[in-house]
Design goal:
- This protein has one domain: Growth Hormone, Chain: A (Up-down Bundle), CATH 1.20.1250.
- Helices cover about 80% and strands about 0% of the residues.
- It is built from 14 helices and no strands.
- By secondary structure, it is an all-alpha fold.
- The relative contact order is 0.18.
Length: about 280
């Protein structure tokens, strides 16, 4: 197949929901990684949490995203990707904007309640976005270009994960860190409007009936009963536990023990930049 024929397949192989969902993914990842890049230092410096507690709270936020995604995908299947995406972006915009009010309520609201509402709310939003975008990529891509569709999706993710810490570092170096959360809220709120206007539910064709949340829960327990698979997940999780320390504890360590004037958010750009570079090269 010639290059021109392949290009024609790419041009005609994706429906509009594919592009809307994946472009929105850039801004969702931008907001997520901007917040994650600044969250630990915000909790430690602005809210005066000890370094260990700030890292733990940031870890709860990050861990909740991945655990809740199991059920977020089932919920997105049941209510539809358009509703799931619009609900997620609205939740994220409210949650990120609410994060700027953590300081005033730090001593007035119990810590557990504050973490549960302020940090778990965006975690639920993110848990709805990822399966919705991946599902849209599958349904709104023709079979012959679906693999390219997933490559585009992962490229969008890395573009957003590069832009997020970059903008967070730029904002934090010029303004109060709370403005990072306002930037994130604005980013996802624009995507909320964009999804309502431009996104149309992708077609379902030849798919199995959607599983209920109860069925998803039972399937999850079945998976946990497979000790070999669980062992594999634990080993694989070890890598990611180490990986995420660059967001959880490294910014605090650099600021407190290496260079207090260092732009720790900008440092976090290195990883996604390398991924983008080598993805293109490979």
């Amino acid at each position: 197949m010639s290059i021109s024929q392949r290009w024609q397949e790419v041009r005609t192989g994706f429906e509009r929901p594919f592009w809307v969902a994946n472009i929105s993914e850039i801004f969702e990842r931008l907001s997520y990684y901007a917040v994650f890049a600044a969250l630990a230092r915000y909790l430690h410096e602005a809210l005066q949490f000890p370094a260990s507690q700030a890292a733990s709270l940031s870890g709860i936020f990050g861990g909740a995203v991945w655990v809740m995604a199991i059920f977020g995908g089932a919920l997105a299947d049941r209510i539809g990707f358009r509703r799931a995406l619009s609900t997620a972006y609205l939740l994220l915009s409210v949650a990120y904007f609410s994060a700027t009010w953590l300081a005033p309520v730090r001593n007035a609201v119990p810590l557990g309640l504050m973490v549960g509402v302020i940090l778990f709310l965006p975690a639920l939003g993110v848990a709805l976005v990822k399966p919705s975008v991946v599902g849209t990529t599958a349904r709104a891509s023709h079979e012959n270009v679906r693999s390219i569709g997933y490559s585009i999706y992962y490229t969008m993710v890395n573009i957003g994960s590069t832009a997020g810490p970059f903008l967070a570092g730029w904002v934090h170096s010029r303004m109060r860190v709370e403005n990072v959360f306002r930037l994130a809220a604005l980013s996802v709120f624009l995507m909320f409007i964009g999804v309502l206007i431009f996104f149309r539910e992708p077609r379902r064709s030849g798919e199995q009936p959607t599983a209920s949340l109860g069925q998803v829960g039972r399937n999850f327990l079945t998976v946990l009963g497979n000790w070999r698979f669980v062992l594999f997940l634990l080993i694989f999780s070890g890598y990611w536990i180490v990986f995420w320390q660059q967001y959880l504890i490294l910014p605090i360590y650099i600021h407190d023990y290496v260079d207090a004037s260092a732009n720790t958010e900008m440092i976090l750009i290195a990883d996604p930049l390398m991924v983008i570079t080598f993805t293109v090269a490979v």
